[in-house]
Amino acid sequence: MDKETNETNNNRGSREESIVRIMQAVRKGLSFDQACALILVEDAESREAIIAEALMLLIEELHFSEGMPLKQLAMKLRISMSRVLRAKENMAKEREEDMRVKSRKALAGRLGIS
Predict the structure, then answer these.
(1) How would residue 112 be classed by pLDDT, with cut points 50, 70 and 90?
(2) What mean pLDDT, rounded, does the chain reach?
(3) How far apart are CA 105 and CA 33, in angstroms?
(4) 3-state DSSP of 46-60
(5) HSE-up of 43 (CA within 13 Å, CB side)?
C-alpha cells in the first residue's frame, strides 16, 4: 500500500472514530457541543465535516429510526432547533444529489458509457 492510500485510510479511520466518539458521548448524556469538544482534529474543515456528519447521523438515528420529534431531539442534544433543521435540510440535499448520481450512473450503464 502506498503512502497516500495509507494516509487516506488513517484519516478515514480517525474520522469514523471521531464520529463514534461524539455519538457515544451524546448517548452518555453530554450535549452535542460537549461531545464535539472531545474530538481532536487539527484541520478545521475536517473537524466541521465530522461534526456535521455526526449530527446528521444522530438525526437519522433518533428522529427517523426511533421517531423522536425534532424539537425533543434539539433539547436532548442541547442545540438550537434551527441548527437541527439546517442539518436535516443538508441531509435532504445530500440524498437528492446521491439519487442524481445513481441515476446518471444507471443511464451511463444502459448506454454502455463508463
Answers:
(1) confident
(2) 88
(3) 38
(4) HHHHHHHHHHHHHHH
(5) 7
In whole angstroms, give the CA distance from residue 11 to residue 5. Answer: 10
Joined grid coordinates for residue 28 = 452518555
19: its cell numbers: 464520529
Please give the C-alpha separations between residue 60 and each of 46, 50, 52, 65, 84, in angstroms, as whole numbers: 21, 15, 12, 6, 11
Q: What is the rounded average pLDDT of the residues 71-98?
A: 95
Indicate if the pLDDT at residue 30 is higher than 90.
yes
**What are the cell numbers at 93?**
440535499
Q: Is the pTM of this model over 0.85?
A: no
DSSP 4-17: HHHHHHHHHHHHHH
d(CA 76, CA 68): 10
